[in-house]
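Q: What does the assembled structure look like for these inputs?
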Amino acid sequence: MDAILLQILNGLDKGSAYALIALGLTLIFGTLGVVNFAHGALFMIGAFCAVTLQRLLNLSFETVDETQKDFLGNPLKVKTPYVEAWFGPETGAAIIDWSVPLAILVAIPIMLLVGYVMERGLIKHFYKRPHADQILVTFGLAIVLQEIVKYFFGANPIQTPPPEALSGSIDLGVMVGFDPNAIIYPIWRLIYFAFATLIIGGIFAFLQFTTFGMVVRAGMADRETVGLLGINIDRRFTIMFGIAAAVAGLAGVMYGPLNPPNYHMGMDFLVLSFVVVVVGGMGSLPGAVLAGFLLGILESFASTTWATTTIPGINQIIIYLVAIIVLLTRPRGLMGRKGVMED
Amino acid sequence: MLGLNKKDTSLLLIVAVLTLLAPFILNPFPEGSAMAQFNAGYPDLMQRFVIFGIFAIGFNILFGLTGYLSFGHAAFLGVGSYAAVWMFKLISYNVIPAILLSVVVAGLFSLLIGFISLRRSGIYFSILTLAFAQMSFALAYSVLSNPKFNLTNGETGLQVYADDPQWFHRANAPDLPHLFGVSMRSTYTMDVGGWSFDFNAGYYLCAVIMMVVFYLAIRIFRSPFGMMLRAVKSNQQRMNYTGLNSRPYTLAAFVISGMYAGLAGGLMAAMDPLAGAERMQWTASGEVVLMTILGGTGTLIGPVLGAGFIKYFENIFSKINDNVLHSWFAFLPDGMEDFMVFIIHPFIGKGWHLTLGLLFMLVVIFLPGGLVEGGQKLLNWVRGKRKDKKTSGKTEPAE
Amino acid sequence: MGILEVKGVNKRFGGLQALGDVNLSVKENSVHAIIGPNGAGKSTLLNCLVGKLIPDTGSVMFDGQSVLGRAPFEINQMGISRVFQTPEIFGELTVMENMMIPIFAKRDGAFRMHAYETVQNEKQIVEAAEEMLEEMNMADKRDMNSASLSRGDKRRLEIGMCLSQQPRLLLLDEPTAGMARADTNNTIDLLKQIRDERDITIAIIEHDMHVVFSLADRITVLAQGTPLVEDSPENIRGNPKVREAYLGESA
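A:
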């Protein structure tokens, strides 16, 4: 029982990332009718916002400390980060320590801007072009973005540790009455899950309860009719694109401490997120979220030692297998609506 | 000739002449001259030109005619390579059985994947093929490579070992892929003045095969079947209401293009008896898509041009480094020279992928018809200019 | 017994009864029009005939065989050709190619792997297609890209494509919708010519009364998913129920 619970919990972090990316993909597809192959790149850019902030905060200047000598007898050179000099050693160190959560504040405007520029500068010109062209141009963009990141940050993963206070693990099992040490769970995973839930909840509430969201939902259902009402749907869709970009970016920022970011993490997640969207049902927001978590958890079960010794490598193909089975038995996906991408 | 009309015959002849004379054409600069770095007449590069040409010709039969954008064709190429290497391991180093099996296996594999993926069209289809390709990659990379059942040899890649059975290996045959005793690596080098031209057996095998499959592609394009495939792309609704079942047509196109990919994979293994999973990755699928659209989707010659273009520049760009750049811009003042090198640096050497991505975007945005359309536009423009010159002297009577 | 027999067809979409107990019999070699105000269920009925929709209950028999559950291409192979409201042609292909495809479909069936022959060597088909282009007065547009045709020519091409299959039943879905008066009249003349010169049954769904009264032998009036009356054009013209149905719409 506790073992099962542990695997479910282990699947939540990847599941959260899948759900967040798939949610953005579905929003973009549903509103703009565009399949965005560069969406994974947005996730990656988010993660590198955290990397960049971490590097900026660690920028230091050197001073010579005459009171201390190194082993050659010369005065010791001491590196002090600028933030520590400005805010005092303790506050400064805390700021550096909390660079990942702080990056959220930085990433929101950056991602909104990136999304806005992408939509206005490129995607906009492809609404009337065939789907194949949309796929191709966003695919090209994804390569360009990831290569630029590779150029500046190199090919190796970069550590972005969580704040000291949030880096340990807690014993969740004891809280619900299992034996001690049965379910040891890293705090940051819990935070990531909570964060994802919060964002997903926020998006749904936004779509459900605001006029803006209502128009967007109506537009997703039937763009032409809403257009006839004289509502400027395009501007709202541009904003939705920005929001979807921000969601992907934030998912990336917070994902860093779980898995050190590298330049191709976006592509890795993108393919799986597409599968998630297809399994959930093209055009269905709840479907995307549900399928994201389900497949994340499934992957976690397939990664157990028992599973991988029975069928080696099963953890790497399980999601695709499930996708194929779902598509053969329920071609519209778990929660797909009739009429979306039927032909 | 050969059942083709005049235009297609001359196209086929041009391709034949170009491929057969490639060792001359691709080595226009004398050995040791400054321009020799732009030569491309090395056996392995020429082999890549034609092999990727075959891959792209096949991909174009699916994408160019039916409009179904597959993002998983590299999987068939990889499967073809594995099949060929297995034939080397089990039968002998003769390339004929290897190439035949690679085509057959890729055909069967594409039948399976096509059957499932073609239940959907549009983006759905693209995503499905992408998922299948990634799954095949994962299968080849880890699942099918374990001590109990090692089909792909995982990360190391599948290769021929000394203790492999090779049941039909004859003692006097070379210990490398060969065609009835002629090693694929055997190269005759002709030195003429400062020039040096390589005639490689493997290249000529690939070139002959490419001409054959190019001819078959022309036949398909001009056949009623090809017309039906274009009808699928144009209007499936009308097609179905005209009494035609579009699914077997698309599936047939999918399998044919899968077999072309398998053939390319088999030839790759025949040139270098090694098969690795990275050949199946979806970025590799993206590359063949780019070759096709860069050359000109739906045109006969486009994919061949696209494949040559990309493989040529991949080779050149990867070779250029900062030193080469500095020598190019040496005529500029120092500051300017450094600046130019600084600007170009990200795109060369390891930056080739960045160039590729940009090229991808630029072609889709500005030249959806690819090089073929670009060439036609240029030709029309030149002709227009010439006409202007001719007519500008006279005054046309007003009608 | 008509060539097309529709019996007791019902179709619901959620809470909406789109078709309620539709009975219809189309006699061989007649022109049968189905008219009705917007939302009367004309298109739903048509879609049930060609395999796009499957009715909830009832039967649709063509020449003694059920069409229900068959795919559109199978129904076409049975001898029913459909002309769409907005012309559906192969826009990226030439006019000639457009005309050849249905003839191939008629000869070779739903699928044939004729990948090694050359289109131009199929003499019979080339001739048949040229003949049909001649008949449609489009021989001079043979090598044009069909997407660049005028609306009226697209309609002619589509009708020609359907006729080239020598169907037993030709279904027309508002063939003059959105056309200028001149094009409408041309289309009417073309259809009259087809009616008079060929052994063919025509079922036409139409909104435009002018078209209906100049062509039809029988008229069925559909209102709210149910046939109101079925009669000859003369009687329909004077029928108060029909007037009511149409006036009700415009009021």
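The beta strands of chain B are 145-146, 149-150, 158-159, 178-179, 182-183, 187-192, 195-200, 274-275.
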